[in-house]
Amino acid sequence: MKLLTKAMQEDMARQMVNKARDVDMCMFNALDGTMEKEYLLDCLMFYQAKDGGFQGGLHIDNYNTNSSVYQVYEAFRLLDMLDFDSSCTHELFDRVISKACNYLYNRCQLEDNKWNPNVKSNNDFAHSILFTYNDENKKLFGYHPTAAILGYTLLFNKPTKAYYKKALKMIEEILPKFYQKESLSKYEAISFGSLYNSLKKLNLLEEDRNKIKEKLLENAKKNISTNYENPDLLHPLEALLYLDTDEFKDEINDNLDYLVSSVKSFGLWDHIGTWGHNIYPEEDSAMIKWIGAETVNNYYLLKKYGRIE
Q: Which pLDDT does position 186 carry in this prediction?
């Protein structure tokens, strides 16, 4: 079993200073315990628009300066990685969450209880093919990131809040359709895995949690892969992180060993994804930014799976 050694972590911390965005530096330092997690709230304020959504490349592959649902998901995902929840009393937390939920639940249109993660104005800015506003991507994303966002809404709001009640109602309405789906995209698997984790943290909907877990395990049997170089295949690490299962122990351990061994000579991880088209020169700068973000994501996974020395 390979571990991320202390020496590797020290080298990683030094290299993050040179190569990572401020928000990724904040995430890494909070995860390794050298910075208070509340500094993330200050970082997110730089990306939050007047309408409450997030924009400006918080998710690196979309340079749109207008808000979109997917960028809100990215902000919520980072907050969840640092274990923020409704017990947080920091005034910025309440401000960030209230504005973001107002954007989602009062400004963004729902279609079949799903938000479209993309907005039309994405097409006016540099972006990966995944964030092109079109029907193909809307179908590809399916219930992602809607399912994850609904779980985060429950986590970040008190039960007395209107957003909490709206999210709970939406969850109850989308789950029957989720159970009927014959297959899940990798995005939906990750999103419903995130929803499962939120419900587990809050000890809500136990019967549905068990059914979600069963569905995700069934999907993993069809799609699990150790082809690490293909980001379009379902890797088990993220999709199965919260399911507390030993069913794919060998595949997960293989993935974790690969993660540790794939740290580059300069001390960080490279991003293996691409934008899927050669339209925008900004892709080159995005790949550089991804080095820090990819390192945060991988460090988080290794920490969660107990692979940090």
A: 86
